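Hello forum,

I keep getting stuck at the same step: I have a sequence, I want structure tokens, and every attempt I make locally crashes halfway through. Rather than fight my setup again tonight, could one of you with a working pipeline run this one for me? It's a single chain of 542 residues.
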Amino acid sequence: MNSERLLLSGDDAIALAALHAGVRLGVGYPGTPSTEILETFDRLGGRAQWSPNEKVALEVGMGTAFANARTLVTMKHVGLNVAADPLFTAAYTDIKGGLIVVSADDPGLASSQNEQDNRHYARAAALPMLEPIDSQQAYDFTWLGFELSERWKIPVILRLTTRVCHSKTAVCPRAATTSAPQPSFQRDVAARVMIPAYAKPAHRRLRQKLAEITAWNETEGPIQLDEGSADLGIVTTGIASMHAREAAPEARQLTLGLTYPLPLERIRAFADSVDRLVVVEEGDPVLFEALRAAGIPAEGKPEMYRFGELNVARVRRILAGDTSPEPIPPKGKPPELCPGCSHRGVFEILRDLDCIVAGDIGCYTLGVLPPFSAMDTCVCMGASIGVGLGMRHVLPDDQARRVVSVIGDSTFVHSGITGIAEMVYNPPATGHLVLILDNGTTAMTGLQEHPGTGRLLDHAPTGKISFEALAEAMGVQNVHVVSTQDKDQSLEDLIVSLLAKPETSLIVARQPCVLAAPKIRLYEKAAAEQTPSAHCPAEIAS
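Reply #2:
Ran it on my machine without issues. Output:
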């Protein structure tokens, strides 16, 4: 490390480490709290790009890693669900270049539809997982992740939570590498073509890798021991370790950095050194159950602390065994669609027509709230079309004809296209209507680009998907493009007419996001002037 000190968020620290570690490509899908990683990496001069979804991002990352290039793949926790298919088989393959998969979890649901604990993925996919406690460790563990990945030819999951992603702490970076692997391809069919004949021995190799990583973790792993009274020992991971240190400064504390595979013998020795052992962890009792399964006597947290983020006060309550009702936090201002948002008029129409609305993930999800109250389901990215079709198939005709699927432009590219394929292939007897609310950006996560905008992550021009041409090519019977501000065309009349038809229909309601519109005009002007795209190294703003 050098003497330079920077004040960085966890996301920015990972981006800087990726730059210093010689990452050839950063790829992902925007999702809070992970979005800023690739944006910062691009701003610093790294090569970064948004993929249509997380599955594609990981597959691209596997390709670059097979070509001996260090690669960073980023996503939020629910994005790892989308990427799970390639993830589980990636564990079987021999990764040539280092590959880190960032999973940014969101305990407390600051901006998500669930608060799943992605530590379960490490065990399920049999992949090593690193969990930093602050920005310095986020920086250091990015380096370490590449070292582990290249040593054992295995993807490494770097798991953060919202608090680590967005909180700023001091970081002392190291000098940038001058010896990152040079991209090249060497054929290794048995290690990369996962047909059964090769996958069976690959599974055995994977378990041997995990055994070796476990042994390394026992002797050299990133474990921090804070001495204290033997009366109380705390085993902890991630941001919970910071809360525990403040809540019980007198306790002896063991903080684990590589949390899968666990260094169980080091934990066992620690347990033997204290009179009482408590596991302090955010989310599910993953660590607690692993210790109990190994026969290590430990106390977990009461069930009530499984929900939401931990903090110092909650950790004190856990250590005291306090299960009395927690103070109810003051209510904040509910979120709402921006004044002037083009989605507002659409939801007013759907409300007034008493439609049954299958909704989706994005800022338009706020259509569920007053004054619109015009959304009836919301499950995951792209689910609006499939859910809407399911209702259409079974509801009585009078109700079925009220069902509409609403999806945003970025979400449509992410996972709505296959829903259109389902609609064309298995059309309900009453037909179906899908509305794409196209505001020209990925608005909810901060105005990022996607394949439907015609601009790359750095806003330079690129190829653009036409939703209407795609729908027509796929066989949708009625395809319409409307502007929500067009006074000569009634969107309400169009919706009514299409709901009455026993045919498949798609409306693209196109109007730029009011927040993105000024920027979009600048990008389009630059493209018209054919200004070359350039990546310029820049300072990270503190």
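The chain has a mean pLDDT of 93. If your local run keeps crashing, start a new thread with the error log.
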